[in-house]
């Protein structure tokens, strides 16, 4: 048996010798040949399903690239193990003379010897000759060669100098030490280095295809090596698949070894621990494949979105994408939109008219942090749901109940995940003060998040004052805090909203009072107040003179109405005319500066007139005394006088 092992090791040594001799100066293109084969053992070849070279195909006649589809399917095959057809060692071993577990160890050693020979071909032949050609001819960069082969040199050194010798020594000494678990357990953690190689595999395949077409010297080196017998008439891409497949083979062989061991075998505990470590390394490789596919899919999505800086983030995960209908607040018919749901944001997009570079344009972005989703009961738009965030809200309609539920579940899963992460962070950094502040914020939703806007078609009158809307004089507006449809008068207020970065937004009176604490509009400082919007009752308390006057003249006619007239102390050069003492808005304001005060028509002792540049106003007081007070106050205002002291010149009754 020892003689058989020595013969097998000699065959691998011969293979390596052939490779080394072929690299000697003066070796021709056909120098890479195998002169010795072990009887019954084929030259190792990592052909995938349907990728075996044809019988009549000349060596190196064409480059067979590894497709992305095959790489994607490889992940599932690695996980299931169903793809593997283990080497049959019956022709290489003495039948009926070995224990089952030793036959498995023998197979492990044989496949490891063939694998090291394949790594030697990749690292010492393909890699070194391409690197020497790059240094000598400068036809292609050295960095390209290093990127293609990644950390393959480290993998080769590990297996050739450590793993294979340990296996060989243990099998040679099997009669004294019938165990293999401790060896694999000691070396298995180093197998995690395969993750880097697997991650880089697709990029390496793309670089290989690119430079094969781009550089004739690069292609010449590959063709010369691939056409040799040492390469087995296989392309470099096929040889590079062998490391991707190797760890799952370790797992399957070791699992079979553990099953064949007797229950009380001394190697059973170590072998089980070694199997767990191999499984962890296999998971590392599978995770690397998944990560590679995730990044590739994410990059393709980012390219469709135009690679905008505030969107591109390699740590994101795409959860769902697809078309939905957006229910508009202005239009009656919903519009087509395309949505991308990531783990941290929802993007509502429209197709670009000219699709050069980017395919979609982002119209609305809603961060998942603070987002809420709920179903809507709308007879006009079935299968609709609301997505509301801190910045915006969207009413969306699906084409079926199943599609709506699927989108809602995807959104809710993203919300739950980010809330779980935030709660973990808050629990670590927040004290009792933070908990109290959180409860206070939960009690005030208004202004913290974007509201659901009421559609224009759902209302015919202002939702605050109940006045009917008209096409010209009373138009529809939306309160940015509650989402109600209100008229201009009821929404002529501005308040800072936290969800919009504390910028002032148009709000209704109800929301303005809640958000600012101001009971009356006159108390606020940020409302755009018209010149007539000075409350008569408030102005009377701070006025120089106020009272009823009979209005007449060209503006009001000979027998005009009675008006409540006020000259405020804080605006002493203007006369305000109200319909009643409690009105908030004045009907008319008259700037008094420059006016002349004259006697009333037909010698009426209680009347007086204001005249300037063709304008004529006639007023009639209830008594001559009141007329005198009004005339003195107006004459002072017309001359530009302003009271310096609150008690100076009070002419009110």
From TrEMBL:
PH domain ranges (all copies): 317-416, 542-639
SUPFAM superfamilies according to UniProt: DBL homology domain (DH-domain) (SSF48065), FYVE/PHD zinc finger (SSF57903), PH domain-like (SSF50729)
A Pfam family this chain is assigned to: RhoGEF
Residue ranges of the TM segments: none
Record-linked SMART domains: FYVE, PH, RhoGEF
Region of interest (Disordered), residue spans: 21-65, 80-99
Segments forming domain FYVE-type: 456-516
PROSITE patterns: DH_2, PH_DOMAIN, ZF_FYVE
GO molecular function ontology, one term from the record: guanyl-nucleotide exchange factor activity
Domain DH residue range list: 100-288
Gene Ontology BP annotations: cytoskeleton organization; filopodium assembly
GO CC annotations on file: cell projection; cytoplasm; cytoskeleton
Subcellular locations according to the entry: Cell projection; Cytoplasm, Cytoskeleton
Keywords attached to this entry: Cell projection, Cytoplasm, Cytoskeleton, Guanine-nucleotide releasing factor, Metal-binding, Phosphoprotein, Repeat, Zinc, Zinc-finger
Entry-linked PANTHER family: FACIOGENITAL DYSPLASIA PROTEIN, FYVE, RHOGEF AND PH DOMAIN-CONTAINING PROTEIN 2
Protein name: FYVE, RhoGEF and PH domain containing 2
Organism: Pipistrellus kuhlii
UniProt lineage: Eukaryota, Metazoa, Chordata, Craniata, Vertebrata
């Amino acid at each position: 048996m020892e003689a058989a092992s020595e013969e097998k090791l000699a065959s691998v040594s011969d293979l390596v010798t052939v490779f080394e001799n072929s690299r000697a100066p003066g070796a021709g293109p056909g120098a890479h040949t195998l002169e010795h084969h072990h009887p019954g053992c084929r030259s190792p070849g990592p052909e995938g399903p349907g990728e075996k070279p044809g019988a009549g195909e000349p060596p190196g006649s064409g480059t067979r690239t590894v497709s992305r589809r095959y790489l994607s399917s490889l992940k599932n095959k690695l996980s299931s193990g169903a793809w593997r057809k283990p080497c049959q060692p019956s022709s290489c071993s003495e039948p009926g003379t070995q224990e089952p577990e030793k036959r498995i160890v023998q197979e492990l050693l044989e496949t490891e010897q063939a694998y090291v020979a394949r790594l030697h071909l990749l690292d010492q032949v393909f890699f070194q000759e391409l690197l020497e050609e790059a240094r000598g001819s400068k036809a292609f960069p050295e960095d390209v060669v290093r990127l293609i082969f990644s950390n393959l040199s480290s993998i080769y050194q590990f297996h050739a100098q450590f793993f294979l010798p340990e296996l060989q020594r243990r099998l040679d000494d099997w009669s004294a030490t019938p165990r293999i678990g401790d060896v694999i357990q000691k070396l298995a953690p180093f197998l995690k280095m395969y993750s880097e190689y697997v991650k880089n595999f697709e990029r390496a395949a793309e670089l290989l295809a690119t430079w094969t077409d781009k550089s004739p010297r690069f292609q010449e080196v590959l063709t010369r090596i691939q056409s040799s017998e040492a390469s087995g008439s296989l392309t470099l891409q096929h040889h590079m698949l062998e490391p991707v497949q190797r760890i799952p083979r370790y797992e399957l062989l070791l699992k079979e070894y553990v099953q064949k061991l007797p229950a009380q075998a001394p190697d059973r505990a170590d072998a089980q621990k070694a199997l767990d470590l191999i499984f962890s390394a296999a998971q590392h490789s599978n995770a690397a494949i998944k990560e590679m596919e995730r990044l590739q899919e994410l990059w393709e999505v980012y390219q469709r979105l135009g690679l905008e800086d505030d969107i591109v983030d390699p740590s994101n995960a795409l959860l769902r994408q697809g078309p939905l209908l957006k229910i508009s607040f202005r239009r009656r018919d919903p519009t087509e939109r395309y949505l991308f749901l990531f783990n941290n944001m929802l993007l509502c997009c429209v197709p670009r008219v000219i699709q050069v570079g980017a395919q979609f344009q982002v119209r609305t972005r809603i961060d998942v942090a603070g987002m809420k989703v709920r179903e809507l009961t709308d007879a006009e738009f079935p299968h609709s749901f609301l997505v509301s965030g801190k910045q915006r809200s969207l009413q969306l309609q699906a084409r079926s109940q199943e599609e709506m539920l699927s989108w809602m579940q995807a959104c809710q899963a993203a919300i739950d995940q980010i809330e779980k992460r935030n709660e973990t962070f808050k629990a670590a950094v927040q004290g009792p003060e933070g908990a109290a502040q959180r409860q206070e914020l939960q009690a005030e939703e208004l202004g913290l998040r974007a509201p659901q806007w009421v559609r224009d078609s759902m209302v015919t009158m202002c939702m605050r004052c109940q006045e009917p809307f008209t096409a010209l004089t009373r138009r529809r507006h939306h309160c940015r805090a509650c989402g109600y449809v209100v008229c201009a008068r009821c929404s002529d207020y501005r308040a800072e909203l936290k969800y919009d970065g504390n910028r002032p937004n148009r709000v209704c009176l109800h929301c303005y009072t809640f958000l600012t604490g101001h009971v009356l509009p006159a108390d606020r400082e940020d409302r755009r107040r018209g010149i007539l919007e000075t409350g008569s009752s408030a102005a009377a308390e701070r006025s120089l003179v106020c009272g009823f006057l009979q209005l007449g003249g060209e503006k009001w006619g000979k027998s005009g109405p009675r008006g409540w007239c006020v000259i405020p102390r804080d605006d002493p050069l203007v006369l305000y005319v109200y319909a009643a003492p409690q009105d908030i808005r004045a009907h008319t304001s008259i700037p008094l500066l420059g006016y002349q005060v004259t006697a009333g028509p037909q010698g009426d002792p209680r009347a007086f007139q204001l005249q300037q540049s063709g304008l004529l106003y006639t007023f009639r007081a209830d008594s001559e005394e009141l007329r005198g007070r009004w005339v003195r106050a107006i004459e002072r205002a017309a001359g530009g006088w302003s009271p310096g002291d609150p008690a100076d010149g009070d002419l009110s009754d």
